[in-house]
Model the fold of this input.
Amino acid sequence: MNSLTIEDLKQHAIEFVTALVKNDFASAVSRFDDVLKNALPQDKLKDYWNTLNSQAGSIQQITGISTAEMQGYRIVFVTCKFGWANMDVQVVFNDSGLISGINFLPANDISSTTSTYKPPEYADQSAFREYEINVDTGEWTLPGTITMPVGDGPFPGVVLVHGSGPNDRDETLGPNKPFKDLAWGLASQGVAVLRYEKRTKAHPEKFKAVYGQNCTVKEEVIDDALSSIRILREYPNVDPDRVFLLGHSIGGSIVPRIGKHDTGLAGLIIMAGSTIPMEDSALAQVTYIYSLSGQLTEQQKADIELLKKQVEKAKDPGLSADTPSSELPLGIPAMYLMDLHRYHPAEVAKGLSLRMLILQGGRDYQVTPEVDFEGWKAALAGKENVTLKLYPELNHLFFAGEGRSTPQEYDIEGHVDAEVVHDIARWIIKG
Done:
């Protein structure tokens, strides 16, 4: 039996998926055993991967990793968010540490759909009720939930806007449901909350058929957020003059743009919102994840160099809608990047008169305090209606932890930190 540990194999599996993302199929195949090399040579692997991307959308990020053992083989499941679906890349290793099988499967959502949600201590279930609603945006209907405090109100309200990928209304990631934490925690303190299924989650095939490679954040995020704001304003017991918008991750980055569309909002809450271009963020994340294993391997160095070239392509003034997504970081469509290139979150926020609360985890490697949070601080310095707060021990999900944050950390059950929930509730109610 090879001396590689299961942690080594996890890292190898991530490197294999990263090679696919970079369209470096020669590197991917070099990790196969002889049988798999013959069965799935480089050209066939390329076709296999391109077919998956056409069906599921381009990959957004790696969100989790798990393992299993079967008949002497060790299996690593790398869970990925694609544009229109969550998928598990199943990587099977033989006893020599070579890949002897791969498969692409719909992500195992058993933990998120059948397991019992264990509420955080700050959620008082006697203090609120939940009501199922639909968010209608033209031809799109999205199921959602309004969590309403008990009483006559009128209560302040907040709409939650998800991060990247096909998120459900709870922003489920492994065993965790950060948006459910926020909804139950805020409603326990007198704030009504609307959360909804993302369009790419509720209608993945239709979304792909309608937009394909021409999708931008307007179709993916903005239109449905604006519809949700209108619904919450009109909902019984909600104060229409005190409706706020909260965005997490890319949702946080886009919140100022939504605020520019709807100037009647009472305020914006930005949780882990990036201020830098998406391609730069992708390069920083891959570099960080590779650094976790210590000194970079030659293959990792090559992966990073290829990604740097794709980042340069993304920044090329000649970038057009015809640029193949295979030439761009993480296979992101050119139209999506071009749309974001015209938008500068911190500068747009600077031009708004809305109150803003900007929150950042100190252990967040996806949206970093050193770059992104400092970007908000620099742009919004001197604005008296802006509050910024850094939580040193929290990660991208605003869960507490120690040491350097890792992708595997998201597989550990946790909750949005109580201090964060209390800070948001106090800030909303104060306004």
